[in-house]
Automatic annotation (TrEMBL):
Gene Ontology BP, a term: translation
GO annotations of cellular component type: cytosolic large ribosomal subunit
Organism the protein comes from: Methylobacterium planeticum
Protein name: Large ribosomal subunit protein uL15
Span of domain Large ribosomal subunit protein uL15/eL18: 75-148
Coiled coil: none
Membership in a protein family: Belongs to the universal ribosomal protein uL15 family.
Keywords recorded for this protein, A-Z: Ribonucleoprotein, Ribosomal protein, RNA-binding, rRNA-binding
Classification via InterPro entries: Ribosomal_uL15, Ribosomal_uL15/eL18, Ribosomal_uL15/eL18_sf, Ribosomal_uL15_bac-type
Length: 166
């Protein structure tokens, strides 16, 4: 086979319908747009128009807002961490950080930080360095003999402090 012999299979491509080319073509005169009116014209979109009545999207009240300063955190449950330790993906002697969680495949990519949550069974002595942690997660890690170093503890305001150990 040569490059100049390559072609599509028979019936793989279809010719474009040329509209507005006479009544014999089957798509002449109005070119498939029906008859007259705003929708028959080009460049007109009337998506939210309800015949002059106030459109639904303007009748409903506005609610809430998007906080542009909110931290986009990865949530990590202790059960996932325990499974990674048992599978040999996390080193027991090293401190668990965002980078080690990404390397172990527990989180896909590091966002603004990690929040440690207390869901699942946890029994390994580990040291954690995370952005936030729930009270139940801190209790479970300390019960197993580990430590949690957090930037912000859940329910405790640590604004302005560099690091708070809970």
């Amino acid at each position: 086979m040569k490059l100049n012999e390559i072609h599509d299979n028979v019936g793989a491509t279809k010719k474009r319908m040329r509209v507005g080319r006479g009544i014999g073509s089957g798509k002449g005169k109005t070119a498939g747009r029906g008859v007259k009116g705003q929708k028959a014209r080009t460049g007109v979109s009337i998506k939210g128009f309800e015949g002059g009545q106030m459109p639904l999207h303007r009748r409903l009240p506005k609610r809430g807002f998007n906080n542009i300063h909110a931290a986009d955190l990865n949530e990590v449950n202790l059960g996932r961490v325990q499974a990674a330790v048992e599978a040999g993906k996390l080193d027991k002697s090293a401190t668990v950080t965002i980078d080690s969680l990404v390397a172990a495949g527990i989180i896909a990519r590091a966002r603004d930080g990690v929040k440690l949550l207390g869901v699942g069974d946890f029994s390994t002595k580990l040291a954690f360095e995370v952005t936030r942690a729930s009270k139940s997660a801190i209790a479970a890690v300390e019960k197993a003999g580990g430590t949690v170093s957090v930037a912000f503890a859940s329910g405790v305001s640590t604004r302005g402090k560099a690091e708070a150990t809970a």
